[in-house]
Predict the structure.
Amino acid sequence: MTDHAHTNCEELLFSLSAYIDGELNPELCQELEKHLVGCDNCRVVLNTTKRTIDLVHAPIEKLDVPEDVRERLFKRLNLDDYLNHQP
Ligand SMILES: [Zn+2]
């Protein structure tokens, strides 16, 4: 039988920021969601990433999170690409 284009962790992480932004096409979204159901690891990454993005979008004064802490968090999550896509 043919195992058609199964999403793996790497692919998922690659498209994660687009997915969170709602910029991913519906087919890929479905693939990611299917993968997430069976993969604890990626669910954790997704949740962490979402929370990080919330932090980034929230006003800094309210958060009291120093810039360098956010930067380190992003580096750890490999979100440099995401940052670079910001206007
Ligand atoms: Zn995974």
